[in-house]
Structures are given as structure tokens and as C-alpha cells.
Amino acid sequence: MPFVITSSPQEISLSGNPIRYKIRCTDPSSMPFMWQGVRVELSTTGYLAFSAGNTMTISFTPPEFKPTVFVTFTSKATPTGILDIPSNPGNYASTSEYWTTIASIIQNHPSIKPYLNVYAFDIGTGMRMVVEAKEYSNDWAVGLTIPSLANYSVQPFPTTNTNIPSNYKVNITVFVEVAYGGDYVNAGSLELQPDADSYIEVDLSSVVDAVIKDTLPSVQTSDWRTVNPLIWDITRRFYLEIWESIGADSSDYDQLTISPTRMAMAGGIAQSLFAAGNYFAQLANNNSLLTWYPNRRSLGTTQPELLAWYNYTGNPISPAVQVVIFYADGSNTTGIIHAAHGITAQDKQVMLIPVGMPLLVSVDANAAQTAVKYTVQVCTVSGGVVTPLSQVRTYFVDASYYEEVHYLLYLNSFWVPAIQRCVGEKESEVEITREITQLLKTYNYTPYFQERYQYQEDWDNITVFHTGYITRAEAQALQELFIYGRVWDITSSGNYPLVLSGKKFSITRTRQNLHSFAIETKRAMEERFWIPEAAPLELGFTLVQDDGSGLTDDSGGLLIEG
């Protein structure tokens, strides 16, 4: 078996975090490509396991007439000491992982680690474990004995020169879906060579991430005041084609392997959190909403709000939302919304579920006038039994009147939409860069001669949105908006992409509890020529000549003055 994938990503990864594969390359006899010291190789016939009480003794004699060292390991159902190895392969995903664990235990014994390398790998018909002197010298002696295990052989070897063919390469092609459950595209190819330990380690996150971000759902065409949940299609499957070559035809180096299919979801988490363990494995009914925004925020009575729920259950789910509305007198009302929308989130897909105040009318038609807060929780309902699928989110109802209310939509670090209400003043100004030339006056110039002439201009409308006061925790969370800058202005005529002008934002101060931001933006599209902000973008009207005073549309409204 010329190469083996020894390490691969979890079933699902975040595309912004490492997606690592590790491949061990070997020659036709399953030996790694490397300079090797004196060693013994244990090969099993079939995929064997130790019985409880079996022993394995590793012995080695260093050069310079040092005494032989013997270290004996005993197999146990529940290994606890440094001389214990496992006897139950059923506790591991595969026999290969079982033997790799045994090799790791032996390798890390304090008497062995300084002198020997111990590793195990699958050879197709069984397992092979190698105990090898680290020093490249034939003066070493290494031994391995197992008194009670059948169907195995142990063979000693002297030092070995590297056995890698001169043009040996491993080729990897990455295939990624363009939509969940859709067609795959060739996302890129790599040509790699093994390192000094005969391994290839590669991080494919940049390749997978690029395809996902090129095929994300459209923010511009979505109506964020919708009343229905929708699938936010940011999960993709991918797989690898891996083959080896030596620059010529060779039956010894012609293996082609198709890797198991894995999944990736757009976004990423902090490196410290990634290093702490499998993020997705931790998601359950108490943390499955993809947001870092703090709980207990204030919402306006007409404000859109979205829950981004990740389906961690392993099954297709058409979830509902349980709502509890609280009133000033201490009473409350409980109800279910989104009970029959008919949209199914497949395993590991993300569903956006609207939970803004306007959607509570089915629970209480007067909620906007009487509620002081409400809670929501993604759930399923069957036979009257409510099963929670997410944590509870609490919203305080802000029924205050504001002169200005604007909504900014932004994508957080999971690439799911979040909405920020801005209740402060909205400022607009125009920023102009002019290119002016000066002409030479002719001898007979007139008082109307244009000596200075503007031959080019560049301009931008600058819009500043003021958030109004928010809490310290909310100010911390808005760093996602400032850092990534994936922002849209939600208007009645469409969702316009913006770019942020600022590079530095003061987030918090000691002893300051309320915070406010002025978010300076420009439209992402340069208009080149000015039009009124309210001018229609789609000319779905007929121009009609009026009585000479101007042009009107067919409803009689004045468009262009005469």
C-alpha cells in the first residue's frame, strides 16, 4: 500500500479554520521513504487485538557497551498506567486507530522516547508496528517479543538508506460542491513531496473556503422582513482524489484513492477555540445558534430579527419556535410560531428563522403594545410535546419613538446574517476629488474665458449611521461588523452593499456602561453619475409627455421638470 491517509478532518469543519490531511507515503513493501535506523517490524496476519493480560516487551541495546534496556507492557481492558496498553479495540474507530494508540503509548514511555521511534500503520492485510532506533548506526540492537499473540511475525532490519524514487510526487485534486447536494467542481490541484519522515501534511482550507465564498447565498435579493424561515446555504461537501506518480509509468506507484466525503461550512472561530477541540461536536440544544451576539438585547416593535440555527441532530428537521411573551403585570403567554412552514434543514445545514416582534401576532395580536419582553427557542412539536433544539434567546421590547431608524445587515464570523438597528441621527455628505487644469489665456481673451477647467472628478456619498446607545457586551460583539466589513443597508428599495471607511473603533472604556458608534460608510458601487436616492432602479413605468412643463410617469407623478 504505497500511501495511507493517516489523519483527516472531522465530519464537518469551518472553512476559515485549518482543514488538514496527513498522508504517509511508502514504497511497495509499505516501508516509509526515509533514512532508517536499526529496527524491528511486527506484522500481523489479519487485524488482531491483544487479550487482557497479554504482554509485549521492547528491548534495545545502545552502542558503547551500555546495558540492554527491557520495557514490558501489559494489555488491560482499562489501561491507566504508563506500562498499560488497551486490550479492547471496540473502544476505537478502527483497528488501525487501536494499533496507532498502542504505538503512541509505547513511544511516550520515558525510557523509550529518547532513543526509539515507534509507529504503526495499516498494510492492507493487517497491521505493521515498527520499533526503530533514532540514531543512524548499525551498532544498535532492537528487539520486540509477544509471548501470547498468534498470527504475527517480527523481522529485524539494519539501517536503510532512503528509498524514495527521484521523481516521486503525490497529487491531490479537491472537489467541492457549488451548492448543498449539487454538482461538484474541481477547486484546485496540488503536487506535493513527502517530508523527511515520509509524511505529507496539507491544509486545504483556503481551497475549500474560496469555493464556498464564491457560491454564497445572495444578500441583495433577500427580503429580511420575510415571515418564513429559509435555508442559508453555506454548507458544502468535498472530497479528494489522491494519486502518486514518479514521472514514468510504474505499476508500483499508480495508486489512486478517493477520500471519504467531508463537509465544510463557511466561517471560522478563534484559533484558541479551534485548538480546544471539535467545535461542532459541542453543539447541542443549549448552544446551536450561530452567533456571538449577547443575549437579552432590545428590539424595536417593527425590527427584523433572525436566528441562525445549525442542525446538529443528524436528521432532517423542520423546526418551529416556542415563544413566551411577558407583560408588565408579571403574566405571560406561551405559543408556537413557524409550526407549518414546510421547510426542512438537512443534517448540518443552517436555517434562518425570523423572530422579530411583528411575527408574534399569532401568539398575541397586541404584543407590540403590551409586551415588555419575550423569549424564543428553536424546537420541534409533536403530540403537544415541545423538544428544545437551541438555547433560549431573550428580547426586551423597545416601543420608544425615534426620529430615525435604520437597519444594517452584516455577516458575522459564521457568515450568517445579523441585523443592527441604528436609532441615532443619519448623516450624509458628499466627498469630491477634483482634477483641475489651468489653460493659457489667449491674447484676445474675454471676461468669460475659462482659465481654470475641471476635467475630471471622483466623488462618494458618505453616510454615517449612529447606533444609539448599546450595552458593553453588544459593543464587543459589533467588532464582527467592523472587522469583516460585510455590511448592507436595508432599505425599502433593496439591500445595498456598503464599505466601511473607519479603520479604528473605540470599543469600550472602564466605567462606561453605555456605548455608541458612528459607522461611516460608502456604497460599494461607484455611481459615477449622480441620481436622487429615491430614483427608481428598475424603470418599470412609461414616460408620458405632459403639457410642456415636464415629463411624468403614467401615474401622473412629476419625474423631470421642464
Structure summary:
This protein has 562 residues and is mainly beta. 8% of the residues lie in helices and 41% in strands. The protein folds into five domains: 35-157, no CATH class; 169-221 and 230-275, no CATH class; 289-398, Immunoglobulin-like, CATH 2.60.40; 417-523, no CATH class; 534-562, no CATH class.
Description of the molecule:
This protein has 562 residues and is mainly beta. It has five domains: 35-157, no CATH class; 169-221 and 230-275, no CATH class; 289-398, Sandwich (Immunoglobulin-like); 417-523, no CATH class; 534-562, no CATH class. It contains six helices and 38 strands. The strands form nine sheets. The chain has a seven-stranded antiparallel β-sheet. Strands 2, 12, 13, 16, 17 and 18 form a six-stranded mixed β-sheet that branches. Strands 19, 21, 22, 24, 25 and 26 form a six-stranded mixed β-sheet that branches. Strand 12 and strand 13 form a beta hairpin. The longest helix is centred in the N-terminal third of the chain and has 13 residues, at 95-107. It is globular, with a radius of gyration of 33 Å. Residues 539-562 have low confidence and may be disordered.
